[in-house]
Amino acid sequence: MSIWGVPMLDVTGLDLHYGQSQIIYDVSLSAAVGEITALMGNNGVGKTSLLKAISGRHKASGGEVRVVGTPVRLTSAFEAARAGIAYVPQGREIFPMMSVLENLETGFACLPKSQHRVPDYLFDLFPVLRDMQSRRGGDLSGGQQQQLSIARALILQPRVLLLDEPTEGIQPNVIQQIGDALELLRSQGNMAIVLVEQNADFAYRLGDRFVVVEGGRVKRHTLKADYAKDDLLADLAL
Q1: Which of 1, 74, 84, 207 is the most exposed, having the fewest neighbouring CB atoms within 10 Å of its CB?
Q2: Distance from C-alpha of 46 to C-alpha of 31, rounded to nearest angstrom
């Protein structure tokens, strides 16, 4: 599917509990092909928990997630990945003792054996990884690890790419490179991108639509054309 602007991800009435505590309340949102949906909000409002529910890392208490109109069984991260949802977690979670190439190859798990190859475009997207394929993941800088984490997610050939705080602790030049890479992925028009980000400048530069979360609920869901940067800053109380 590569129809520009058509919803790729639909989340309807999602609830999430940790034990007896409810974290996410009746959240609904959509993310379209060829767009970046910026999921915004202050710390502790449930953004990461929402991404973990969508990606199958935490079992939702209720609601539904659909990819291209098909309900996704969110019983595990594996099932979500098979449905085309790739998740780049906060903190990157690369394997420090494995090489860059081996980290990338862990993305093969959900693919048929005929597709077990690292596509060249990933090294075009993140050139630093090409020269570091044999280096251990733990020896990379934070910015290089972040690029590796995104590239590993792209191995899945996702329909939906979820990114949690990709600029956290990253030097400015690498933030620019990551932003450029996300803009290129968007321009290809074959996936929906959902971006959780505390860096308001970065998020507003990239976002096509904005979902603002407050207290585990959606406070705002709007297109960039209807949402000035000052509105975003006001919503974040910055």
Answers
A1: 1
A2: 18
Helix (H, G, I), strand (E, B), or coil: what is residue 189? coil
For residue 116, give Cα distances in angstroms to 33, 107, 112, 124, 220.
25, 9, 7, 18, 41
For 103-133, the pLDDT digits (tens) are 999 988 888 888 899 999 999 999 999 999 9
Asked if 16 and 60 touch (Cβ cutoff 8 Å), the reply is yes
d(CA 139, CA 87): 23
Half-sphere exposure of 207 (CA within 13 A, CB side): 30
* Alpha helical stretches, state H, 3-57: 47-54
What does the buried/exposed string (b/e) look like for 159-196 if buried means 16 or more CB atoms within 10 Å of the residue's CB? bbbbbbbbbbebeeebbebbbebbeebbeeebbbbbbb
| Structure confidence at residue 238 as a pLDDT band (50, 70, 90) | low
Q: Residue 137, class by beta-carbon neighbours within 10 Å (0-12 exposed, 13-18 middle, 19+ buried)?
A: buried
82-to-11, 92, 105, 107, 153 alpha-carbon distances in Å: 17, 20, 16, 11, 12
Whether 192 and 161 have beta carbons less than 8 Å apart is answered as yes
Coil, strand, or helix at residue 227? Answer: coil
User: How far from 86 is each of 119, 125, 149, 159, 189, CA to CA, in Å?
Assistant: 16, 17, 11, 8, 16
Q: Which fold has domain 7-235?
A: Rossmann fold (3.40.50)
Q: Has residue 153 got a pLDDT over 70?
A: yes
pLDDT higher than 90, residue 92? no
pLDDT of residue 74: 81
Distance, in Å, from the CA atom of 136 to the CA atom of 31, rounded to the nearest integer, reads 35
